[in-house]
Write a structure and sequence with these properties.
The protein has about 250 residues and is an alpha/beta fold. Helix content is about 45%, strand content about 15%. Strands 3-4-2-1-5-6 form a 6-stranded parallel β-sheet, sandwiched between helices. Strand 3, helix 5 and strand 4 (about 130-140) form a beta-alpha-beta unit.
């Protein structure tokens, strides 16, 4: 029996987040340049999106480019931007075919203008799709996101639109870039690294973490299904004891 057949469709995580790690190491293992790993990683994204649609995952958020990634060699950054633009344009029809809505979070204005324009275009043409929302975290930093939310709330207090007593978890979450989606129940990181790397720090507060040695370009639907099966074996208590959940 494959992992897909072991999944309880009635207990699916509504939102899965993925740190797609290992592209560079995968390319090095192949004797190729790092960009080859990123190109191959695009195939994994396509396969995982199809897997999510296939079983009914409503939200998928992938860490595509962090603010720290700007510190990489300029040749790699430029190649990543070109690949991102090409992929966004190429996948518009496929996203529509699979009823997938494209979304993006992060400091989008820091991206090249063509990337911003193409991203906005594809987000527009897929905006009515309902099977799954694919969110690209681009030029994203969780610390940046939290600071931006704090600034917006501080401005509202300064302008007397809200008071200090109005500030609670719900209000703060409403000022994050993920305001229109549930927090992830499952976060997957590939390549054997065991950290969250400034990714969705607020949203991952009660998320189940799953780490795999598989490098991202080798990660496929069956690996996703295996992670979901593992997730469904866990008891999510949210601070309670087991007896309180029954």
């Amino acid at each position: 029996m494959g992992f897909k057949e072991q999944i309880d469709i009635n207990r699916l995580p509504e939102h899965i987040a993925i740190i797609m790690d290992g592209n560079g190491r995968w390319a090095k293992n192949q004797g190729k340049f790092r960009v080859f790993g990123h190109e191959s990683g695009v195939l994994s994204v396509k396969d995982i999106v199809e897997g999510c649609v296939d079983i009914g995952i409503k939200y998928l958020t992938v860490y595509a480019f962090s603010t720290e990634n700007w510190n990489r060699p300029i040749e790699e950054v430029n190649a990543l931007m070109e690949l991102l633009i090409a992929t966004i344009n190429e996948q518009a029809a496929t996203l529509n075919k699979n009823n997938v809505r494209l979304n993006a979070i992060g400091d989008i204005k820091s991206l090249p203008q063509k990337c911003i324009d193409d991203l906005a275009n594809v987000m527009g043409v897929t905006s009515k799709n309902t099977a799954c929302t694919l969110t690209l975290a681009l030029s994203y930093s969780a610390k940046w996101e939290i600071l931006e939310a704090a600034k917006k709330i501080a401005e509202q207090v300064r302008d007397k639109k809200i008071t200090l007593n109005d500030i609670n978890e719900d209000l703060f979450a409403a000022h994050l870039t993920t305001t229109n989606m549930p927090d992830p129940e499952l976060m997957i990181r590939t390549s054997g690294e065991h950290r969250v790397s400034n990714f969705l720090l607020w949203q991952l507060a009660y998320t189940e973490l799953y780490f795999t040695e598989t490098l991202w370009p080798d990660f496929r639907k069956e690996d996703l299904f295996e992670a979901i099966v593992d997730f469904q074996k866990r008891e999510r208590r949210f601070g309670k004891i087991s007896e309180q959940l029954n």
